[in-house]
Amino acid sequence: MSEYIEWSALGQVVLFGLIVGAGLPALFAVGVRALAGTGARDEDGHVRGSRAAVAIACFAVIIAAIVGAIVYIAAGGH
Amino acid sequence: MPSRPDTARSWPRALVGRTTIVPVNEPVLLVIVVATALAFDFTNGFHDTGNAMATSIATRALKPKQAVLLSASLNMVGAFLSLTVAATIATGIVDSGVVTLEVVLAGLAGGIVWNLLTWLLGIPSSSSHALVGGVVGAALAAAGSAGVLWDGLISKVLLPALIAPIVAILVASVGTALVTRLTKDVPQESNDKMFRWGQIGSASLVSLAHGTNDAQKSMGIILLALIAAGAVPSDSSVPFWVIVSCALAMALGTYTGGWRVIRTLGKGLVELESRQGMAAETSSAAVILLSSHFGYSLSTTHVATGSILGSGVGMRGAKVRWGVAGRMFSAWLITVPAAGAVGALFYGIDTFVGGDVGSYVVFGLLLISAAVFYVLSRREPVGHHNVNHEWEPGEQADEIVAEAVEAHDVELIAEGTGAGAGGKRDQA
Predict the structure, then answer these.
(1) Fewer CB within a 10 Å sphere, N or C end of chain A?
(2) What gap in Å lies between CA B216 and CA B238, rounded to an integer?
(3) Interacting residues of A3 by C-beta distance below 8 A, sequence separation 6+
(4) Which of A21, A37, A78 lies closest to B287 in CB terms?
(5) 8 Å CB contact of A35 and B292
(6) How does DSSP classify residue B30?
């Protein structure tokens, strides 16, 4: 089989696929939880500053990843 | 990296006029091949809309019409982003020496017929595999088994068809499991609201990548045909009209919406909610882009389908209809031989009739079969109006119902065919 499957390439796809393809959704979930999970809002109904900061950090990483992906597609790296 | 628009020049006139300006050896055949390549591009967009948009439609993150419009626009943008187009078809899979215009035509026709048949049956199937299959069949008919590079066929086409869904199921199920655990104490309403945005964003990336990858294939084929017919020099980059027409053909196909395939992907495999949809589309985008980056190209369709299955596997209590999935996997295994048989048949007809007339006949047969498929599809039409209707028990191979691996509901399994019961939350 080994002559038919490029194991190293496949391994990299799986490894980075998990990091990016599962990691980014998880990060998004962390952001959502920070904004809307229990304890996200103080008594006045405002989102607590610390929680908002966590959410913004998460979403910023995700937006950076999306921009990176678009640049990558446009650069013909596919 | 050659820049393209500079070399656009005025080839369109050369082609449309088909007479003077540039000496074209086989003008009629060339026109037919270009038209067929654009038709293939159309079916490609048409067939593959679901890969990007099925989940967004199923979870109602987007209205069906909005979704196909967004996907079509992004396909179009993606097609214009293609900076490097190579004049190749099935490189490393068939001997490039046997690839004549007749082989390309028969191969395209085989791919189109397979695309239309699987569309009629509502099965997502890889357009690139259909094309490769068609060309392999035509090459076999033209040059015998020596015309096909079997090692390349196995390692670049057949095995990846098995590997792609496995990788995607793995990534999407891990992603879904993480997401659902992290957000389990978040009110469903907030989850839906926010994850819909994530879903639209990730689905858009899939559309963009698809436009770039797949429109490029048709451009490559047309460029190859133009070079083969002597209409452009062999070192020419893609004429601008080719880019425009390929982008338009694919976007039009996407906008037409292969509703039958969208329905199967969005409603048939897994009852989806936004969190799963988001995890599935991100997994698809990541695996598709990474696989081409590491030089191990996986089919968009196989990855997208695997991701949707994975989003069912990874979610506690979600239902996966493995019967429907099994039908798809079988279709993927026979894509290459089936499209190949059609491609070989068309090539046989072409050479049997002979000359330009042979290509006319092939083109005519292709039009007739497309019409037949269309008429058959009208018997049970699926469109934007009913794409999201509940999946009926018995609709396609629906008898095998499995729970997510981590939460077997014995009662439900015993019930067996109670498939249509799930997903009531989706009726709104």
Answers:
(1) N
(2) 10
(3) B151, B155
(4) A21
(5) no
(6) H
